[in-house]
Each structure stands twice: as C-alpha cells, then as structure tokens.
Specification:
The chain contains nine helices and 17 strands. Strands 1, 2, 5, 6, 7, 8 and 17 form a seven-stranded mixed sheet that branches. Strands 4, 9, 10, 11, 12, 15 and 16 form a seven-stranded antiparallel sheet that branches. It is 20% helix and 19% strand. Helix 1 packs parallel to helix 5. The model has no long low-confidence stretch (mean pLDDT 95). It has 541 residues and is of the alpha/beta class. The protein has one domain: FAD/NAD(P)-binding domain.
C-alpha cells in the first residue's frame, strides 16, 4: 500500500452537497484538506442535456443523459435481499448528486425534528429547528435559492431569496382548482438562479436540470464549493479515489483513510487528524462497516450495531394529467427550470389521520421533450398520432414524495464474499415498507383522485401498483441521536465512539420528513464544520 508522508488536517470523503460544504469551510478556515472522490469530473461540455430523445441510442429510455455520472460499476455493485420495490441512486462523479439534481430546497419544519414528542413514533432529533435556523439561512445565501416566504409553518422560510420562477399556464390552472380545496400551491424554492449570483449566470430555462446544467445556473458542488476551496491553496483533490477503509490508531481513533485508485489499480493511504464522511447514505455506512479492526471488530463506531440500520427515505409516485383547457393548443415553449411551483404537505390540515407523516408534490419536473402519453393511450396509426399531438401541450405532472418511518430492521450490511470491481465488499440492502408507510400511500392515492376530479383533464393515476422508493432521498444509516446506545452520532454529526470521525451526509438523519433532504444535509454540514473549527481552536480535536 502506498502511503503519503504528509498528514492533512482533514480528510473529506465524497464531494457532493455535504463534502463540498466541508471542503470549502475547512479550506477557508486555514486547514489543509484532502478531498477523496470516487469518480472524476465531467466537463459541462460533455453533458447531453439538450439532445432530443431521437438523437440518443435508446431514445433516452436507458438514462443515456445521466450515464456519465455513474462511473465504474457503481450501478451493479449492490444487492437487494428481502426488499420491496426500492432503488439506491449511488453516484460517482465530482460534485456527487448536485451535478444532476432537481435542486428543490425546502427547509424541514420544526415539527419534523420531533416525531416522538408529537406523534409517538421514531425518535426526536438531538437538535431543533431553532438550532439549525442560522445554518439554513447561511446555506441558502451561499448557494442561491429562488422563491419567497409563503407564511406556511410546514415550509418555514428565510429572509434572503432570489426572485421566484414564473408560473406556466398549467400551474395557474392547477392553483385555481386547488384553491377550491384549500390546498396551497406556492412558488418552489430551488437552488436555481433567476438572476446572476455569486459569479454564476441566471437560468436560461432549457428544462434539463437533472441531466446536468451546462452553465452552472443550478447549484453544483463541482462548480461552486470546490472551486472556492481550491482558490485558498489549501485543498488537495484526489479523483478516482474510492475509499475502502478507515484506519485507526492504538486508541481506536481514525488516523488515515485507505482508498483504491480506480485508474492505477493501486491501494493508497492518506493520513489525517480528522475524517469526515460525505459519501452518501449507502456508501458511508458501507465504508464504516468495512472498517473492521481489533478496536472496532463490528466496523468503526459500531459497537452498538446501529451502523447500517434505520435505512429510510421517500415513497415516490408519478402521476400524469392532461388538461382539457390546453389540449390542442399550438406548440409553445414551457420547458422552464423543471418544476416552478410546489404543493407542500397538506394532509395535516384535514384533521387527525390513522398514520403519521405526509407527502409533498413537486409539479412538472419531467422533460417536455418526451410524449409520455404515447405509452398510455390505446390504438395506433394516424388517429393515435393526432391524439398524442393534441395532448402534448396539456401535460401537468405530479411527483409525490412521502415520509417513510425509520425502522431498525431496514438496513445496509456488507458481503465480505462478494467484491466489486475494485475488490471492496459490496453493500447489501434489506428494506420493507411498514404499515404506516402503506396507510399514508393509500391516503395519498385517494387525495390524488380527488384532485383529478377537480381538474378538467384526462388523468393517468397508477393506484394499483405497490409503493416505490427512495427517489434519491435515502437517509438514516449512520444516524444521530441523544442516546449512544441507539445512535452513532451526536448532534454535531460526531461519532460517539470515535471523536475525530464525523458523518454529515444524509446517513446522519434521525428521521425523514416528506421534504427533499439536501438543504438540511448542507445546513448540518455547515453546523458540524463550525463545531470542528471551534474544537480545533480549543485543541480538543
């Protein structure tokens, strides 16, 4: 194994939302940082975002536009056992999932941190919304978030937003219908620039955020955070560096990270005083479980067997509505910046339910390049084609995302007998939706049927299919908590058992809400960075 003689102040593993924040904050604070990224940078000139489906080998049906972001065997080197219909969006590219995300950034509400106190399920977080509020504010200003304060407790707001995105015709029609039901429709909050900000240009409304933004109007760690870290002269970036094990000293503290260079095919080692894992929910747990030693025989910081447990995320569902008011209209450009409006959780407004949690709805985030109705309509020939064309301007799409409970039996383990292409034991996922999850799922179906009855439309609602997850929003496998017996981390994302080990990606979540997790991941990372800097100043780290 090759080992460097230099000892870094901090080793950050993963360069996405969490890793970008940590690298930037530490470098600007004067620390010498090494950032390990399992993938490599994809230049925006290589993005296929503007190509039409007919220009792609499989007409876009095999995710050709996003294939550049899934390097190596990351899509294959995972196994699901005794699991419901779920998928893990592991990714390898500089910038992580911020390179191709929808950038929706709602804050968690105060109630989302207190599920045990308010509903008697799961556990309360070891911090409150008030603890995180200043970090939400700072992150929103760092990355540039559009939208405004709608005065809703379920989606609390900050003080500094860029102008909201303009609404489409279908979204105005939607609001008119939902106003009669008492369901709010608001401007979405997204890390998308509606005017030039922080040296990046405004969105030009091409409609392809999730295939990569070639001008960086969508926030990406690769084009915002990491360049700022590099500018300090304190960052060492190693790409194609797949972390395989956290090495410890005689006292069980992290002393180095062993990684596999996927280009040279050599195992290497970097020394660091502090190790911060930002590799995402599955990979951070995998790395910790693979880090076995005499001091940590069950994996680092895992004497309580909690690492890998409490895997959860979002129930996901897509529904298509074709509005009669827009059917047959002359073609017009409605690409935009994917979704422009947002339907926050509303089921709590209708009284007590027989389940806990709720769902949000993100509107129109699918690409208008593709005629989704073509696969749903019967027939063929000229009449069929004419109907597809008539319906194309009328699309209104709902993507609903619902809360899933964190249960200890849903977990990630590793298989030491099944190695990936780089000779590292693969993760094994076991997950089943619980009774609460399914009860909420059925109520969301009922609600969507009621909404469709208020819209003059042709609706395609798949109410018979089982729930699916996690919509790239998986969390919880290295969770924080007040009790070291039932959690891995404290409120600052610091391992209870290994004081110089931190985990700040989605795996640190105690529970999940219906909201997208990324803004909360970044706020938690910023809070942890402040804590680490203060502990270093005091000489305690």
């Amino acid at each position: 194994m090759q080992s460097t003689t230099q000892e870094f102040d901090v080793c950050v593993v993963g360069s996405g939302a969490a890793g970008g924040v940590m690298a930037k904050e530490f470098c600007e604070g004067g620390a010498k940082v090494i950032l390990l990224e399992a993938g490599k940078q994809v230049d925006p000139s290589q993005f296929l975002s503007h190509m039409w489906p007919y220009e792609l080998p499989y007409r876009g049906l095999r995710d050709e536009k996003q294939a550049l972001f899934y390097q190596g065997d990351v899509r294959q080197s995972i196994r699901y056992e005794d699991s419901d219909q779920i998928g893990m969006d592991r990714i390898r590219v500089l910038g992580g999932r911020t390179v191709h995300w929808n950038a929706v950034t709602p804050r968690y509400a105060a109630r989302d941190f207190r599920e045990w106190s308010l509903a008697g399920v799961e556990e309360d977080w070891p911090l409150t919304y008030e603890d995180l509020t200043p970090y939400y504010e700072r992150i929103e200003q760092m990355i540039g978030v559009c939208g405004h304060d709608d005065g809703l407790e379920i989606v609390p707001a900050g003080k500094h937003y860029l102008p909201p995105l303009p609404w489409r015709c279908s979204e105005v029609i939607l609001k008119r219908a939902l106003d009669t039901m008492g369901i709010p429709v608001i401007s979405v909050r997204k890390a998308v620039l509606t005017k030039p900000y922080d040296g990046r240009p405004a969105c030009h409304f091409c409609g392809h955020c999730m295939s990569g933004c070639d001008v960086s109007a969508v926030f990406s760690s690769a084009t915002a955070m990491i360049p700022q870290a590099k500018a300090t002269g304190n960052l060492t970036l190693r790409q194609n560096a797949l972390a395989r094990e956290i090495l410890v000293d005689n006292e069980g503290r992290a002393r180095a990270v062993s990684y596999f260079d996927t280009v040279s095919k050599q195992e290497k080692e970097v020394k660091a005083r502090i190790v911060v894992l930002c590799a995402a929910t599955i990979e951070s747990a995998r790395l910790m479980l693979n880090s076995r030693s005499p001091r940590h025989p069950n994996g680092i910081a895992n004497s309580n067997d909690v690492v890998g447990r409490y895997l959860h995320g979002h129930l996901g569902k897509g529904s298509y509505f074709y509005l009669k008011e827009l059917e047959g209209a002359k073609p017009f450009n409605q690409d935009g910046a994917t979704d422009h409006v947002y339907i926050p959780r509303y089921n709590h407004l209708a009284g007590k339910k027989d389940y806990v949690g709720g769902w949000q709805i993100q509107v129109n985030f699918v690409s208008y390049m593709f005629p989704y109705q073509a696969s749903k309509l019967p027939g063929y020939g000229p009449a069929f084609k004419a109907q597809v064309r008539r319906m194309q301007p009328a699309l209104l799409f709902f993507g609903s995302f619902g809360k899933v409970l964190a249960l200890p039996e849903n977990r990630v383990t590793v298989d030491p007998h099944h190695l990936d292409a780089d000779r590292i034991p693969i993760p094994v996922v076991r997950f089943r939706f619980g009774e609460n999850d399914r009860a909420m799922w059925h109520d969301s179906d009922r609600s969507l049927l009621e909404i469709s009855s208020r819209l003059k439309c042709q609706a395609f609602l798949d109410t018979d299919s089982p729930p699916g997850g996690f919509a790239s929003h998986e969390v919880g496998t290295v969770r924080m908590g007040k009790n070291p017996k039932t959690s891995v981390l404290n409120s600052y994302c610091q391992a209870h058992e290994v004081k110089n080990l931190f985990v700040t990606d989605g795996s640190c979540f105690t529970t999940s809400a219906e909201k997208n997790p990324t803004l909360t991941i970044m706020a938690l990372s910023l809070r942890a960075a402040d804590y680490i800097k203060e502990q270093r100043r005091k000489g305690e780290l």
